[in-house]
Amino acid sequence: MKIVTYIRVSTDKQGRSGLGLAAQKAAIAAYAKSANAVTVADYQEVETGSNNARPMLQNALKMARVMGAKLVIAKLDRLSRNAAFLLNLQDSGVDFVACDMPEANALTVGIMAVMAQAEAKAISDRTKVAMQAAKARGQAFGNPNGAAPLRRAGKGNSASVTSMQKRANARANDLSDVLHDLENRGVTTLQAQANELNKRDIPTARGGKWHASSVANLRKRLAVAY
Known about the structure:
Blueprint: E1 2-9, H1 12-17, H2 21-34, E2 38-46, H3 55-67, E3 70-73, H4 83-91, E4 96-98, H5 106-136, H6 148-153, H7 164-184, H8 190-199, H9 212-225
Parallel strand pairs: 1-2, 1-3, 3-4
Helix pairs in contact: 4-5, 7-9, 8-9
């Protein structure tokens, strides 16, 4: 089994000191040994809890999709209150396991995301009530539209990509960097690219082997999409 690992610490200070990293790495190593797994890539992210961008998580998910690997997360409980992270994980199409919550799956992560959203809404509602009470006492606040861009940016978080066409385009996008790398290395024919993809142990969308025809279809899809 192939795995891609993802470790996260929540502050720059923790990242520099290594606080929490040793335990997470040990948990992943123990899982890999028990599952007889081969690690194809490791990703580490140092983020604040309020930052939802998580570029290393996006890279880890992409690598897992490309390689047909399982994503191994050291500590899901560290992220269980972050709805954006959970929804991203649920909608990624990647098989995953959390070392500290091995029973977690797409369903339980979805429930956790709903709960995280509900908690965020409850906090927001309490904040609004408190602000209204403060305004009634004459306290002034800044621009009331200041949070509008953030609300607009978050509208698509819960959308799930269900159409086969979109999934195929997403898969093609995941593989575009690999094709560019092959072309830069002088591997340009359809059969040669198919051979190299198989050599790198990268499966097709259906988990099979590459042929010249399947590479041609991939290149056509990328040409139409871009």
